[in-house]
Design brief:
By secondary structure, the protein is low in regular secondary structure. 11% of the residues lie in helices and 3% in strands. It has 2 helices and 3 strands. A 3-stranded parallel β-sheet has the order 1-2-3, with no helix packed on it.
């Protein structure tokens, strides 16, 4: 009961920040559309304002959701696998247990979503972006333990896009024990973030920015670090021994 209340409070707080309620559809209309779509058809909600809605547990049936505004919406345990969410806004949305596997979130914004049931440090989210496409996406907030395995995160920005953005509350993004196994992080910006015990095995981090990142206990086995910048990163107990192109990494001598 208290967990449900917490999620409701998060949604209301998000709406208070975003301004007046202005969704194009209500939750019942969205649900009806998804349930009545003919077999073999793809639901199309592109560019709709669906902010602040309770859409938890819904199966979006690989819908077209490009440009949709989900600000402050509750998408807990929703099935968005295979959906197209290019340039969608998921800021402050509740994403506990949501499935975005194989979805296309290129250029999407995921700033400070609610990913956990509580604030305990070892909480399990269940949020998955396995095999998803997040090219050029902007993520910020707490994503500890989230599954990004085999996702394409090329040129993604992890943390505030602008130095003034959200900086008073979340100056550092937390990705502790996140799973980036086999993911593509070419040119991704991971600078100054908390990446302790994160799994980068087999990931491609060519030209990635890891300056000042906290990498204690992270595993880079078989990861490609060609041109990756690790200047000022902290690396206690970090497994870099079998990383590929390690000699081509920048700033390795300046790690701590």
């Amino acid at each position: 009961m208290w967990k449900t209340a917490l999620r409701i409070m998060v949604c209301y707080a998000a709406l208070a920040v975003s301004g007046a309620y202005a969704a194009d559809m209500n939750a019942r209309q969205v649900t009806r559309l998804l349930f009545t779509i003919p077999a073999g058809s793809t639901p199309d909600l592109s560019n709709k304002d669906l902010s602040g809605l309770d859409l938890s547990g819904l199966d979006f049936k690989k819908a077209k959701l490009d440009g949709v505004n989900f600000y402050g919406s509750d998408l807990a345990h929703a099935n968005l696998s295979g959906a197209s969410l290019k340039s969608a806004r998921l800021d402050r949305a509740t994403l506990i247990g949501a499935d975005f596997s194989r979805a296309d979130l290129s250029g999407a914004s995921l700033l400070r979503p609610n990913v956990f049931e509580d604030m305990k440090p070892l909480s399990h989210s269940g949020l998955s972006f396995a095999g998803a496409r997040l090219v050029g996406a902007n993520l910020n907030g707490r994503f500890d333990g989230v599954n990004f395995s085999h996702a394409d995160l090329s040129s993604a920005i992890f943390g505030p896009r602008d130095p003034r953005e959200e900086v008073l509350i979340t100056p550092m993004m937390s990705l502790k024990a996140a799973n980036f196994h086999g993911s593509r992080l070419v040119g991704a910006d991971l600078a100054s973030n908390s990446l302790e015990n994160t799994d980068f095995t087999g990931a491609d981090l060519t030209n990635a920015d890891l300056r000042g990142a906290r990498l204690g206990g992270a595993n880079f086995s078989d990861a490609i670090l060609d041109g990756a910048n690790l200047t000022g990163a902290t690396t206690p107990d970090t497994n870099l021994r079998s990383a590929r192109s390690l000699k081509a990494a920048v700033g390795l001598a300046a790690t701590r």
